[in-house]
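Researcher: Please translate sequence to structure tokens.
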Amino acid sequence: MAKIRVYELARDLNMTNQALLDKIRNMNIYVKSHVSSLDEETVAKIKAGFNSTSTKSEGVAEIRVRPTIIRRRRIVVQEEPETKPETQEEEAIEEVEPEEQLPEPEIIKAADEVKKPDIEEKQEVMPQAKIEKKPVQQTAAPVKVFKKTKKEQPAKVLKLPDVEKKPEVLEESQPSQEVKPVEQIITKTIDTPAQVQPSEHAKKPVTHLKKTVEIVPEIPKKADPIEIIAKKEETVSEKKKGKVRDKREEDPDFKDKLLFKKKAPFKKKEIIEVEDLFTPEPRVRKEKKGAKAKAIQGHKTQLTVPKAIKRRIKIDDAIVLSDLAKRMGIKSSEMIKTLMGLGVLATVNQTIDFDTASLVATEFSYEVERASFEEGNFLKTEKVDLSALVSRPPVVTIMGHVDHGKTSLLDVIRKTKITEIEAGGITQHIGAYHVKTENGQIVFLDTPGHEAFTAMRARGAKVTDIVVLVVAADDGVKPQTVEAINHAKVAGVPIIVAINKMDKPEADPDRVKRELADQGLVPEEWGGTTPFLKVSAKQNTGIDDLLEMILLQAEVLELKANPNKLAVGHVVEAKLDSGRGPVATVLIYEGTLHLGESVVCGIHYGKVRALLDDRGMKIDEAGPSIPVEVIGFSGVPMAGDELIALADEKDAKQVSTYRVQKQRSKELAKTSRLNLENLFDRIQEGKIKNLVLIIKADVNGSIEAIRDSLNKLSNKEVKIDIIHSGTGTITESDVSLAAVSNAIIIGFNVRPSSKVQAMANEENVDIRYYNIIYNVIKDIKNAIVGLMASTFEEKFLGRAQVREVFHVPKFGAVAGSYVLDGKIERGQKIRLIRDGIVCFEGKNSSLRRFKDDVKEVQAGFECGIGIENYNDIKVDDIIEFYYIEEIKPELE
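Model: Translation complete:
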């Protein structure tokens, strides 16, 4: 027999390594550790020692210093019933019945109910076993009877009376001991090879618990009743083992395998409450050596979805992708992948619009709501009080084609000379004027007639009550006339036609009536509803009739407003004045605007610091239908913005701040949006040439007109890119922006300072100055044409046939040719054709007639033709002359 190690012998003896080491050392055999080798003689000596002690332990229970908890219980269950007479078992049954009521006949359930008394009795048995060693030896015979009983057991089911007998026998051995400390605190000794010394207050109960249990190597040989009682007496540590305990009962070798894996012996004491003994919750215990924690199997952590109310996110019209991911608790990378799956390319810091955010949120089971700022809470609309309404002057907009005399007609009414002030004699600003007549007050809006000012005409039609359509009697209906009619029809306002320039000899009012009838404006004398009046601004005729018709039409409309409320109006025009700051021409149509009131207009807010009428005079208030210039805005508002007066300046600032953020979000969403559909278009845009412009003008309306006109000039090859526009003079920041972006600055009715001009010269920035919109459009057209690629077309000149080939020294081959048709010119491109196939394309090097160099030769004449760098010329070859013509592009 070869040598065997200590842990192998411990496994054969069904013991722990530490217990075997202690036993060997008690036998005065020196071993160093559980991996030490033992020879054959030593192994036999150890086994002989175990046989003697195991026989003794069955009767005397002598080995109790380092046993495991499970084996202590089993020895109590095995030996105690055999050493006790049957009379004591019957008495035990009688005593247990009144104390414990077992409602169900199941064995395991009964074991659980009598668990606490069993623990108490086990603590009291061992002192009796110590005192009465001899009686235990005398009861060796009943042990044999127990083995006989084992053979008679057919199944592992124990009746309820047998379960009750076992604990009562233990209780009779020493009934006088107190067990209160065990009920309050139980010291649990974990099944380990080493032993932990208990605390002083729990020392006595733990000592009895240890003495009660003995090690029995014949655990697999026990009868079924003993196995069930062992389950009943299971302590806290056994309960905690859960699945390990079940495997040990089914497989006896499982415990040895488990103990064999433990390399480092350790001891641990855990103090728990009595209530915790019966709780099924898993507890985690950590080993001292090693970072891993061993936990009893429990419920796995489940991923939970937030409640529906928490899966609802409120955002504005646009949101940064990283912010949305953070609010949803999702990684930005996951959101980017999801967006790519939806066909949208986005980065972490990119802004996505509301619709895109809704789509990606739906993929993660989230709902997106629009967190709209309730402007209604600040801009409260009051109910209309009919009793407070008073009559107001009508707002009349004068519309028509350019040069049809609109402003001249208004000059006659106002007795002013506005036409002489306007550059080029055309109106390029929308003007609002208040006129007092003998029959009442009228407010006039003068709109431009040029095609570039479409937005101004549309804006004028929206805020007006009556439209006066001016048509020249000598010119008839023109495109802007038709456009003005359409604007008036869309706005739903009545139209009064004024046929102007009746003083001219070529005036034809009937022609005007016919052409307007085709547009749906039928004169009253023809059975229609549109009044036609003949006027002459130059001769000052028909003006009174026109004013009377306007007031009559206003009376029919019953125009009324409430002046006793906060003002509401529309911005007709706005500009940046160098001395006064932002100035807006506002037409009040409801309420009264006072000095010092807080107002909000578009994205800007302010406090009314000055009010000026149409003649430049300061006033303190402006009522309904009164046009005024308002000074005090934080910025230049856009033409057409609504002006609202508020009682509190804080409310105005809050509304303005919200509108600024909203506009900024929209701009970010517009500029940064990129998806798979337009990705190729963006790449192709790199091939398109851009004409970058910066527009500065005196008023906002002129900027709008110039921008709209220039954007129409863009085509497939050249794109107009207006990177900045604003009112006021040209500043250093404008020059810096133009220098960086290679832009051209267009100044309309504005001039830079000498310092800005010097900076522009240094940076080589081109600044163009204009005061007539015609010239702006003309110059930009020429610039676009210069950027567009020219097309080339081949033009045929003539053909010549080779009759003879001459070889001239230093010149090479010369073709003596006859001009068949057309004409041939020296220095033009040629094409050599042989048998209908083009053999060579090149350039003519020389052209001679007889001995003279000539520029051209007409058809029917002979000449000598030299081809540059080519000598392979043969008789009957055809030489074709042509040239390439460059065709410059034209804008429609």
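Researcher: Any highlights?
Model: The first helix runs from residue 6 to 12.
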